[in-house]
Amino acid sequence: MTLRTGNLLLAAAHATQAAVILALSTAFSLPVTGAFMTGPPGSETPPQETLFHLRIGPLVAAFLLLAAVDHALVALPPFRRTYERALGRGVNPFRWVEYSLSASVMVVLIAMLTGIADYVALLALFGVNTAMILFGWLMELFNPPGRERTRWLPFVLGCVAGAVPWLAIGAQLAISVAKGNPPPTFVYFIFVTLFVLFNSFAVNQALQYARVGPWLSYRYGEGVYLVLSLVAKSLLAWQVFANALVL
């Protein structure tokens, strides 16, 4: 299967899933909260207040639609040739732009399912995950085909940034359990499966730049990214749908 065919199939798969989830989801929502100063610094702790409720069905559909748009753009004119030329230089900017948005929305969703609701915390998790993705892009720019040596600093920095959301979410889960308020079982499954899959993206890039076996070909690694993207987004979407978005 060619990359063009794979991208077209993935565009259709993601768009179809988004449409089904939008059509069948309930109005289930989670609160987004904030705490604001009521006096000078050091005075009493300000109370949390609910700013709004965020519907989860459209949030799930959003990261699926972002992926659908990305795959459609790189498979069709006028961006197909730009995509092919970029692959020849060992870089795919389309992927990193899409991941910076879709993967960060996914992290925010996972965080909200564990009870993280403060808007500042959610924005910070979105931002640090975006930074992790952009370090992946920088890794490609730093290491073009034909290089004499591989520069791993962007990869290492990306791993450091990427660990922050999972540490925060893991701490949230652990403290909730310690306080006697554990989340539903499906939240643990989401945490574990998405943690493994998110790290699989890093493993794929590491194998690319270590030039291991078939990963010596940049296009092989690109194909693996396509599979991982579909699996990760689909698993999160349907785990959330099955446990929170249906009556």
Task: Please specify the SSE layout and strand pairing.
Layout: H1 3-24, E1 29-35, E2 48-55, H2 56-75, H3 80-88, H4 93-113, H5 119-142, H6 153-178, H7 185-210, H8 218-244
Antiparallel strand pairs: 1-2
Mean pLDDT: 95
Tertiary shape? globular
Strand content: 5-15%
Show unreliable segments. none
Cα-to-Cα separation, first versus last residue? 39 Å
The portion of residues assigned to helices is over 70%
**How many strands, which pairing sense, and closed or not: the largest β-sheet?**
2 strands, antiparallel
**Strand line-up of the largest beta sheet:** 1-2
The tally of beta strands, per DSSP, is: 2
Number of helices: 8
Broad structural category: mainly alpha
- Backbone CA Rg: 20 Å
* SSE sequence, one letter per element: HEEHHHHHHH
Describe the structure.
- This protein is mainly alpha-helical and 247 residues long.
- It is built from 8 helices and 2 strands.
- It has a two-stranded antiparallel ribbon with strand order 1-2.
- α2 runs antiparallel to α8 and α4 runs antiparallel to α5.
Features:
single chain; 247 residues; mainly alpha; two-stranded antiparallel ribbon; 2 strands; 71% helix
Provide a brief overview of the structure:
This protein is 71% helix and 6% strand. With 247 residues, the protein is mainly α. The termini are far apart.
